[in-house]
From TrEMBL, chain A:
Gene3D superfamilies: MetI-like. Its main location: membrane. Keywords: Cell membrane, Membrane, Transmembrane, Transmembrane helix, Transport. Belongs to the binding-protein-dependent transport system permease family. HisMQ subfamily. It comes from Bosea minatitlanensis. It is a multi-pass membrane protein. It is found in: Cell inner membrane; Cell membrane. PANTHER family: BLR6398 PROTEIN (PTHR30614:SF34), MEMBRANE COMPONENT OF AMINO ACID ABC TRANSPORTER (PTHR30614). InterPro entries: AA_ABC_transptr_permease_3TM, ArtM/GltK/GlnP/TcyL/YhdX-like, MetI-like, MetI-like_sf. This is Amino acid ABC transporter permease.
UniProtKB/TrEMBL annotation, chain B:
It holds the Pfam family ABC_tran. PANTHER family: AMINO ACID IMPORT ATP-BINDING PROTEIN, GLUTAMATE_ASPARTATE IMPORT ATP-BINDING PROTEIN GLTL. Belongs to the ABC transporter superfamily. It is found in: Cell membrane. This is Amino acid ABC transporter ATP-binding protein. Gene3D superfamilies: P-loop containing nucleotide triphosphate hydrolases. Residues 4-238 form the ABC transporter domain. It is a peripheral membrane protein. Keywords: Amino-acid transport, ATP-binding, Cell membrane, Membrane, Nucleotide-binding, Transport. The keyword Cell cycle does not apply.
Length: 217, 244
């Protein structure tokens, strides 16, 4: 049995790095996919709308854990062996895409329809309307809830520990198994999560205030 | 050939028929005021002219474009036909200058320097040269509406539509917007305006059209129409307006 000292703490900090990396990758890929889904969800073409809506509904209705199991264990049944990091990133990105798509759809829809009319009346194409008129306004509206969701994502990355990927939560378990110093180990783990999430939460609240102050009246 | 030609236009929302066969012809350089009670179909008629509302039957031709719902043809039409709305609808994330330069740049590929000169010119026309770098939120309603007019002018339209553009404004701000419109009218712009400003209709519009129950009820040279309304509906409307 080892005691909980600097090497163990460093191990946890390194694992926190993986948590951050996983969050970043899931957010980036999930964000790209989510952006496409949000616009598909608002398409004038019914079948496109339906596909996006179904995808979002399905993903939001099953636990991330199941997506993870399916991509890690499920695919291996068909001979596709994803490394844990890849399975974890992919599953989280899928989860992120469904939620961001809904957040962003709401943001796009909350831009007043008169903006669409004004833009169309100035001979802009639908793509130009999105790019120059709607999206810049929607992005501002979406910032607070998007950063808020990012906080959830940081915490939810802990789920991928079940497929053996060593991020912060899994690292905490490993150190605890070796030291049995649960209080200090998980105390530090919790502290690291807090140190990442608290500033983000504050940022989200700050953005909300700024957005409310600059709302046109 | 008239600048705007409307022939027997019918439009319904479901079972409710809001335009029951409207025909109207507007010559180049003419100013036409559409007046009538709310629900008479005047705003709907105006919005049909630039394709913001689709209609079921009839025919509209404006500045040489036939109005239908084909996106490409609509875009071509809207380069030649401007519209100004009651609620200004400026783009709040862009400065006044950017609001004005955006459309010429992206729809007509006007070079930056030329767009800038154009923006300064139209802003001067509406008397707001000093507001180039302001954001719409920092302007009064009257100033925002003048910017909206400038934004429309920057597309160098052949016909301009005005949809109750002073209805959201306090009385003291209404005047500055009407002044800009009067200047445009004197400059020879072809204009169709839906308005509740009876004095403006009488004094500036060549022709006033009174709409009632989805039809053109009465029309004629503005001064004659207001001086001697023929139908009891217009007589009542003019009288109510004079009192209010």
């Amino acid at each position: 049995m080892t005691t909980f000292g600097w090497p163990e703490a460093l191990f946890l900090f390194r694992a926190a790095g993986w948590t951050l990396l996983l969050t970043a990758i899931a957010f980036l890929i999930g964000g790209l996919l989510g952006g496409v889904l949000a616009i598909m969800r608002l398409s004038r073409i019914r079948i496109v709308r339906r596909i996006a809506a179904t995808y979002i509904l399905v993903i939001q209705s099953i636990p991330v854990l199941m997506v993870l199991f399916m991509s890690y264990y499920g695919l291996s049944l068909f001979g596709v062996e994803l490394p844990p990091f890849l399975a974890a990133s992919a599953s989280l990105a899928i989860y992120v895409s469904a939620y961001l798509a809904e957040i962003w759809r709401g943001s796009i829809e909350s831009v007043p329809f008169q903006q669409w009319e004004a833009s169309a009346s100035l001979a802009h194409s639908p793509a130009q309307t999105y790019r120059h008129v709607i999206l810049p306004q929607a992005v501002r509206i979406s910032l607070p809830p998007t950063v808020g969701f990012l906080v959830q994502l940081v915490k939810n990355t802990s789920i991928v520990s079940v497929v053996g990927f060593v991020e912060l939560a899994r690292a905490g378990q490993l150190v605890n198994n070796a030291t049995f110093d649960s209080f200090r180990v998980f105390g530090l783990v919790a502290l690291i999560y807090f140190a990442i999430c608290f500033p983000l939460s504050r940022l989200s609240r700050h953005l909300e205030k700024v957005m409310n102050a600059s709302r046109p009246h | 050939m008239p600048a705007v030609l409307i022939e027997d236009v019918h439009k319904s929302y479901g079972k409710l028929e809001v335009l029951k066969g409207v025909s109207l012809s507007v010559e180049t350089g003419q100013v036409v005021a559409l007046i009538g009670r709310s629900g008479s179909g005047k705003s709907t008629m105006l919005r049909c002219i630039n394709g913001l509302e689709a209609f079921q039957s009839g025919r509209i031709e404006v500045a040489g474009h036939v109005v239908d719902q084909d996106p490409k043809r609509l875009r071509a039409l809207r380069k030649d036909v401007g519209i100004v709305f009651q609620s200004y609808n400026l783009f709040p994330h862009l400065t006044v200058g950017q609001n004005i330069m955006l459309s010429p740049r992206i729809t007509k590929n006007v070079p930056q320097a030329e767009a800038l000169a154009l923006a300064k010119d139209v802003l001067a026309q509406v008397g707001l040269s000093d507001k180039f770098d302001s954001y719409p939120d920092n302007l009064s309603g009257g100033q925002q509406q003048r910017v909206a007019i400038a934004r429309s002018l920057a597309m160098q339209p052949k016909v301009m539509l005005f949809d109750e553009v002073t209805s959201a404004l306090d009385p003291e701000l209404t005047g500055e917007v009407l002044l800009v419109m009067e200047k445009l009218a004197k400059g020879g712009m072809t204009m169709i305006l839906v308005t509740h400003e009876m004095n403006f209709a009488r004094n500036v519009a060549n022709t006033t059209v009174f709409m009632h129950q989805g039809k053109i009820w009465e029309q004629g040279p503005s001064r004659e129409l207001f001086a001697a309304p023929q139908t009891p509906e217009l007589q009542g409307f003019v009288k109510a307006g004079a009192q209010g």
